Amino acid sequence: MDGIFFSRRRITRLALIVAASMTAATPCESQEWARKMFTVTSHNFGTVAKGSKTEYRFVFRNIYEEDLHVVGVRSSCGCTAPTVTKHDLKTHETAEVVATFNTRTFLGQHGATLTVTFDKPYYAEVQLRVAGNIRGDVTFDPPFIDLGNVDLGKGAERQIRVTHIGSSPWEIKDVRSANANFEVSLSKPVNTGSKTVYELVARLKPTTPAGYVKGQLILVTNDPRATQIPMDVEGRVVAEVTVSPQLLALGAVPVGESVTKNVVIRANREFKITGVFCSDGCLTCEPKTTAARVHILPVTFQAGDAAGKVERELKIATDLGEGAVPVVTVQAHVEAPADEGAAVTPTADQAASLP
Description:
With 355 residues, this protein is mainly beta. 11% of the residues lie in helices and 56% in strands.
């Protein structure tokens, strides 16, 4: 009898242990739905110069039916400052966690864990990791190449000073870039005691198309500790008239319902929007008769009775002349009612159970 009681007691304790272990594993498993929104969760900045502008953007996308809310993001180390570009996301919308490496006040090898906290549709935390080595003996002045706004067809030129402090000979052997729109010239080094100075001139070619310019110049040096040092380049090539976005993605829209999103039109001088045209009338928006350099145009899409993908062209007429504004492509996915079986986007609960 005692043996039977003892066996039952052991079985009960074992059941409790198993239940406790399953409960302990649940939080980790239940947050997998949030991790699936990130394609990249770690980044190495490599070796960077002191004071240089160094950042990385972790992109995440709401792949679920429910609305998403980001509470915030925190860093485990002052060497990296994180921010979120957008806190509320509907289905298929994207945002970024921007990790900025603090190269002004930190030196040497550093790393940080960035914790992104969500509270909708459920509570979850996702950890992102960054690392890099900040060289105190190499500096850029200014800290990065800021092209600003460049008129289409004109190109731009910026000069930056690269300084190395140290007793050992230091040489920039080459400057490379993956962006064919950049041209670079490098002066001969000026050696003064323990200091080596280069004057670097970066040019943006006049043939660069309109749009955002972002990239890096890679300084190839003779230093075995850091053979490559990146230098950030940013700017925007602006046409006489630009439209943002040119591809307006409206996401999922239920049959018979409507959704409105903004299109921004910019020009180098004031203009009026005299008309907006779509082939079948499913897109509507009001003209802007007051002259301005920037117009925000709310575009409304009205879903019809048929489910499926919809793509339309929106043509915007202005007093700048025919064809001055690029055509806007509008895309939407019209969803049938739930009982007709058209929903294909998983919920966060469903995603947590997927392998």
